[in-house]
Amino acid sequence: GLRVHEYLYFQVLSPGDIRYIFTATPAKDFGGVFNTRYDQIHLVPADPPEACGELNNGVFIQDQIALVERGGCSFVSKTRVIQEHGGRAVIIADNAYDNDSFYIEMIQENSRRTADIPALFLLGRDGYMIRRSLEQHGLPWAVISIPVNVTNIPTYEMMQPPWTFW
Predict the structure, then answer these.
(1) Which of 71, 123, 148, 157 is the most exposed place for a label (fewest CB within 10 A)?
(2) What are phi and psi of 124, to 5 degrees?
(3) Which residues are CB-contacts of 67 (< 8 A; sequence separation ≥ 6)?
(4) Domain residues for 63?
(5) Which intervals hold domain PA (predicted)?
(6) Helices marked H in the chain
(7) Digit-coded pLDDT (tens) for 67-84
């Protein structure tokens, strides 16, 4: 049967034009879990975006969360690159920028490699809009709060991205 996705939520605090609560799905069989809540932590887009090797901005990833783009190598490889640069977690956005509803199930490839930091999958449209906002404002990162507990927030009060169908 169909498997119901487990969701994790994070909120962009700045820049203000994307101050929304975003939905992500944790990796299925690799990576750690969020056992700490970060009220204000940087979400740093990886350079290069696919994060399949050495990063040009790895110094900014340390102790922060990386925003990575799908493609080029496995989800585990991307997560390990961010982990090796000292990242606390990785959010991997789909490389299909028009994807606003289909979550990919991130699984470990057929190797014994694993990663210890949390890895989340983000819709392509959401990742694109976050990166676009940062570029428009000339910012090297967004400030986010993660994870966000949405169980006590009435649906009509949740600041959801207007481009996402809920």
Answers:
(1) 157
(2) -60, -40
(3) 43, 44, 45, 46, 91, 93, 122, 127, 130, 131, 142
(4) 8-157
(5) 43-127
(6) 58-61, 75-84, 124-137
(7) 999 999 999 999 999 999
Q: Which amino acid is at 75?
A: F
Q: Which residue is it, tokens 């990785």? A: 90
Reported as a single tens digit per residue, the pLDDT across 12-49 is: 999 999 999 999 999 988 899 888 999 999 999 999 99
Let me know if residue 164 belongs to a domain: no
Residue type at 130 in one-letter notation: I
Length of the chain: 166
Contact between 5 and 121 (Cβ < 8 Å): no
Structure tokens, 72 = 């080029």
34 neighbors 45 (Cβ within 8 angstroms): no
In the chain, the number of structural domains is: 1
- In angstroms, what is the C-alpha Rg of the chain? 15
Structure tokens at 108: 């470990």
Structure-token pair, residue 95: 């490389």
User: What is the b/e burial string over 147-162, where b = at least 16 CB atoms within 10 angstroms of the residue's CB?
Assistant: bbebeeeeeeeeeebe
Structure tokens at 49: 């975006």
Q: What is the CATH number of the domain that holds 116?
A: 3.50.30.30
d(CA 25, CA 119): 8
